[in-house]
Design goal:
By secondary structure, this protein is α+β, with helices and mostly antiparallel strands. It has one domain. A seven-stranded antiparallel sheet has the order 3-4-5-6-9-8-7. The chain has a two-stranded antiparallel sheet with strand order 1-2. The chain is globular and about 40 Å long.
């Protein structure tokens, strides 16, 4: 078990402050001005959780499979992260669905499709959200684990 933990931490350190878009391999997600404050290896050996605080104060959590694919992300903070970089190819799904939603001051956007689930809401200085690709969940991982 220690060997698995060591390998996961080594892989995570090798990844540096680069980040990945949802459903993609590690890339550069808002790499300027980011600061990694904690790296946590999950108890499940099939994925790693990486916590990052952006220079804006926004906290981003990435769930990364053993093969290096980000299958889920969460965010919370005073400023929205770069959603296009964070969601990758699923950004267009978010845009299309948001056009169907009435614009209200503190509205939420909830997208539940077979290929992607996106939940987000908040207001200035208090944004939060999560997104995941259900088909890419590792064995034993569920939507309830995205926190």
């Amino acid at each position: 078990m220690r060997a698995i933990y060591f390998l996961q931490v080594a892989w995570l350190l090798q990844a540096g402050v680069g980040h990945a878009a949802l459903g993609g391999s590690p890339d550069a997600f808002n790499s300027e001005g980011t600061k990694v404050v904690a790296s946590v290896s999950s108890a499940v050996s099939s994925y790693v959780v990486r916590d990052t605080t952006l220079s804006t104060g926004t906290h981003v959590r990435e769930f990364i499979s053993g093969s290096g694919v980000v299958f889920a992300v969460t965010w919370e903070g005073p400023v929205l992260p770069d959603m296009k970089s964070l969601l990758g190819r699923h950004f267009n799904t978010m845009l299309a669905e948001s056009e169907k939603t009435p614009k209200a001051g503190r509205s939420r956007l909830e997208i539940d499709q077979p290929e992607v689930v996106i939940n987000m809401g908040g207001h200035m200085r208090a944004y939060e959200g999560s997104a995941w690709v259900p088909a890419q969940f590792p064995a034993g991982f569920t939507a309830n684990d995205v926190r």
